[in-house]
Design goal:
- By secondary structure, the protein is α/β, with parallel strands linked by helices.
- Helix content is 49%, strand content 10%.
- It has helices spanning 24-38, 63-71, 75-88, 112-125, 157-172, 188-200, 223-239, 241-255, 259-282, 300-309, 347-360, 376-388, 424-442, 450-470, 482-485, 493-512, 527-535, 537-547, 551-570, 579-602, and strands at 16-17, 20-21, 48-50, 59-61, 95-101, 105-110, 139-142, 177-180, 314-316, 319-322, 336-339, 366-372, 397-403, 406-407, 478-479.
- A hairpin with a 2-residue loop joins strand 9 and strand 10.
- Helix 8 packs across helix 9 (259-282), helix 16 (493-512) crosses helix 20 (579-602) and helix 19 runs antiparallel to helix 20 (579-602).
- The radius of gyration is 29 Å and the shape is globular.
């Protein structure tokens, strides 16, 4: 697992479970593993993978080479014996050919009978097998990185889209999921805001010592006010010691529960969450929880006392820390700082308390933190500390899913033309504008009314934005190129979206012409390539989950759309005179739409009815 401090072996997913469609490569692996085992060779060498050389084979097993090194035998001879055993098993109707290539690679071609039978089953049920029961852990996905009083900007894009894709995928595969954006809503930054309010608006009732009535229910500031106040407060505190002292005083008042400070803070939280929910909703992203650092503040004293009593936390240079030891003994890891010498808590403190809440109160078994790769050391310290103090047992999975930056053409963090940090709202507007431009160039949707054209532009813009981000390996930085991402050709969201809309148009005509969508019954040519792509979906879903790599879904969506477009260009589906062949082709169209809809929904991309 990428970014995991607890790598675990991946269990096999069943091929069929309650009429659900599972991994073909896992099913083939079981067949070959049995043959290897019968020869007295480790069954693990029977692993079968999707072939990278479609001209040679559909699937491939390379274990004979490793077995030859172990047994000191000719790999081709071992491969021949494996093939003989597979042929003698009751699985021969699966393969049309079994052959050896190079030094001992076993190539397999699936039989037409198996392809048709398998895809007809999927066509009938349209259910993908969930993960095995032993993998169905209660999973918490922490993403979004939202902060009180700060606007969402381009820096929030990757955590939001990655985290949302992962929570969608986990739910799809049968896991119980709880998502939380874990708000930054506590600490000195809140004290700075309260101090700035006192400085600018001393007439407010919150700052009158003789005020006895209840504080106003309506916030004295809007989110726009807060977005201006916070940088002003930060700048003033950096240049003015008295201002910083006032901010620290207000922080203490807040954390001690003094009414005026808590009332103002609650206003800040309320207006911020309202704005944040609008920003996330614009991306189609929703959370189960909106907890923040403030929610676990009261747990901290007891945790610190316990850690000191048990000897896990010690004093070092006036600060309270958890000393850390690398289990592998290969590197020195800095201690996790819990309390500074001045008594202030830090991220390590609140994150440890948050872990306790998630384990004890929410019963989480797997925690995925989708956070900037610059925080890698912090999460290494946090996870190691959680293990050392006994908070996270061996069956708990803790992962930091790190990601790189979104860069502009200059390969530096993406900014507006004026040089400022681009707000997320502005980025979404730009994507929609670019989509309108593209649609106009194509003369697409020109005959539809204004409202529908706008909905289509939003869908295309969002497809360009989300696919353009998620198609990249999240471990790397990438260049944000909206013009490129919005094209209807090549590896883009609009290209995949257009393929799905094309299938919808075909199926609408089927209804209009009263044609039949039949079971898949035949393979006459080009559709075999499409059928093989359709078989891959479960493998892609499981690989995406186990490796936490949404770019696999993007690659598959493109490959499937490309295969469908080749099929569409060569097979004149609606005008085909052979009724049985036409209905079989329409069955393939229907199944292809199901898979594209499945993958695009996991990417958070909506498909318009038409373009």
């Amino acid at each position: 697992m990428v970014g995991s401090e607890n790598n675990q072996s991946v269990s096999k997913t069943p091929f069929v479970s309650n009429n659900a469609f599972g991994s073909v490569s896992d099913m083939l692996t079981r067949i070959f593993a049995a043959a290897f085992s019968e020869m007295g060779i480790a069954s693990e060498l029977g692993k079968v993978v999707i072939s990278e050389r479609r001209d040679l084979s559909d699937y491939q097993c390379n274990g004979a080479l490793a077995a030859a090194r172990e047994l000191k035998q000719n790999p081709r001879q071992i491969a021949e014996k494996i093939i003989d055993l597979v042929r003698k098993s009751q699985e021969q109707e699966i393969f049309s050919t079994l052959s050896i290539d190079g030094p001992g690679f076993i190539n397999t071609k699936l039989s037409d009978k198996f392809l048709i039978r398998t895809l007809r089953s999927l066509q009938q049920n349209k259910i993908i097998a969930p993960l095995p029961a032993n993998e169905l852990k209660h999973t918490m996905v922490d993403f979004g990185g939202a902060n009180i009083a700060k606007p969402m900007h381009v820096g929030h894009l990757r955590t939001t889209l990655l985290g949302d894709c992962l929570q969608r995928l986990c739910r799809f595969l049968g896991l119980k999921v709880t998502s939380d954006t874990h708000l930054g809503d506590w600490g000195t930054q809140m004290g700075m805001l309260i101090a700035e309010m006192r400085h600018k608006f001393p007439e407010l009732p919150y700052f009158k010592s003789d005020f006895n009535g209840p504080y106003p229910t309506e916030s004295p500031v809007t989110i726009e006010d807060l977005e201006e106040l916070y940088p002003q407060a930060s700048k003033r505190c950096q240049s003015d010691k008295e201002a910083m002292a006032q901010a620290l005083y207000e922080t203490t008042q807040l954390q001690n529960g003094v009414p005026y400070a808590r009332a103002l803070w609650q206003h800040f939280v309320n207006v911020s969450i309202k704005a944040l929910k609008e920003d996330f909703a614009a991306l189609g992203v929703y959370f189960d929880l909106w907890k923040g650092e403030s929610d676990i503040h009261d747990r901290i004293p007891a945790i610190l006392e316990r850690l000191k009593k048990e000897g896990h936390a010690v004093t070092s240079n006036g600060a309270l820390v958890i000393p850390l030891q690398d289990p592998a003994g290969k590197e020195e890891i800095p201690p996790l700082l819990l309390v500074k010498s001045d008594g202030a808590y830090l991220y390590g403190t609140t994150d440890i308390a948050t872990l306790e809440e998630r384990f004890e109160d929410l019963q989480a078994q797997q925690l995925l933190y989708v956070v900037d790769k610059r925080q890698s050391l912090h999460f290494k310290q946090l996870f190691l500390a959680a293990r050392q103090i006994g908070m996270a047992g061996p069956n708990i999975i803790l992962e930091h899913i790190a990601f790189g930056t979104v860069n502009g053409p200059d390969r530096k963090p993406f900014k507006t033309r004026a040089g400022g940090v681009m707000k997320l709202k502005e980025l979404i507007h730009q994507a929609t504008d670019e989509a309108r431009k593209r649609l106009a160039e194509m003369r697409a949707a020109a005959e539809y009314d204004v409202a529908e054209r706008e909905e289509i532009a939003k869908a295309v813009g969002m497809a360009a934005l989300k696919y353009g981000d998620l198609m990249h390996d999240h471990n790397t930085d990438y260049v944000f190129d909206l013009e490129k991402f919005s094209r209807f050709e090549g590896r883009t969201g609009p290209y995949v979206l257009y393929a799905a809309v094309r299938i919808k148009a075909i199926l609408r005509k089927v209804q209009e012409q009263n044609l039949a969508i039949g079971p898949i019954t035949t393979i006459s040519g080009i559709e075999r390539e499409l059928m093989l792509e359709l078989l891959r979906l479960p493998d892609i879903l499981y690989s995406t989950y186990h490796k936490r790599m949404p770019n696999y879904l993007c690659d598959y969506a493109y490959d499937l759309a490309y295969s469908f477009n080749r099929f569409y260009l060569q097979c004149h589906i609606l005008s085909e005179k052979d009724e049985a062949l036409r209905s079989s082709w329409l069955g393939l169209c229907d199944l292809c739409l199901f898979e594209l809809e499945t993958v695009l929904s996991l990417l958070g991309i909506n498909i318009p009815k038409r373009m």
